[in-house]
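ping. complex inputs:
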Amino acid sequence: MLTFSPTAWAKLLFLRDLGPTEVGGFGITEPDDLLCVRDIVLVEQQCTETFVSFDDLAVAEFFDQQIDAGRHPQQFARVWVHTHPGSSAQPSSVDEETFARVFGPCDWAVMAILARGGETYAQLHWRQGGAVRIPMRVDVRFDVPFVGSDQEAWQAEYDAHVHPHCDYRLSDPRWPQQELDDPFFDRLFEPAL
Amino acid sequence: MKILFINNDGAGFADRIEIAEGTTVQQLFQERIPHGKPDSYLIRVNRQPTTGDYILQPDDRVSITPTKIEGAWSHHPKGRPWEPANGSTVCTSSAL
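pong. complex structure:
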């Protein structure tokens, strides 16, 4: 089972709901519990409603920073987390291709997906004794140390690393700013109506 | 001579290793990741992009990290792709 500390889960939910795009990051774990995510770290990424792509240089820099922080690659580069804006957390062909190509050479790795509708998906790739893929449950653990939320810092991390490339304002009226641009939008909330 | 080598393949590696004098980046890659395609990795020396023929120096820091980490979502006709966060969008888990 893949688990998240309450703080890591809260951060993932917060990041998922900050905008209309996908968002991705790496799960950070402790050496004695590699399947319990204690933090989600974002790297520089380009995103749309249906796609997220990490910047290669930022990934390399992330590795260097984590090594300098004293972590082993198994603690920071094995749980790949991203969100889906819709109701389905099922991996796409792109997700599967990335997971196989990037994380296939690793002894083990996890692809975890959280959909906006709340559905979760996790799959463990395990290479010892022949490669296998194992579906995993996802849950939140309250029996590990955790700190409170820090939405201000999470927002700053999102703003610094997530670069949306959206044409949703042209094609999809669900973006709230588009509603605000509508001169009749405010009138919808007038008591008389 | 010794260098710091960082790599995520296999069990993952981040430690000092002993290499022969005159070893190039390409030789190190072929030795450490024999089945890997160089274009699937970003190879940096001392946090800077490098070339395959660079001759490694003592205490160099070499990182070989994955590239093209991409995720996608196939649009599902049901439901709205996005709406501002509210109580109904916060859910701890489902489909367990």
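The mean pLDDT of chain A is 87.
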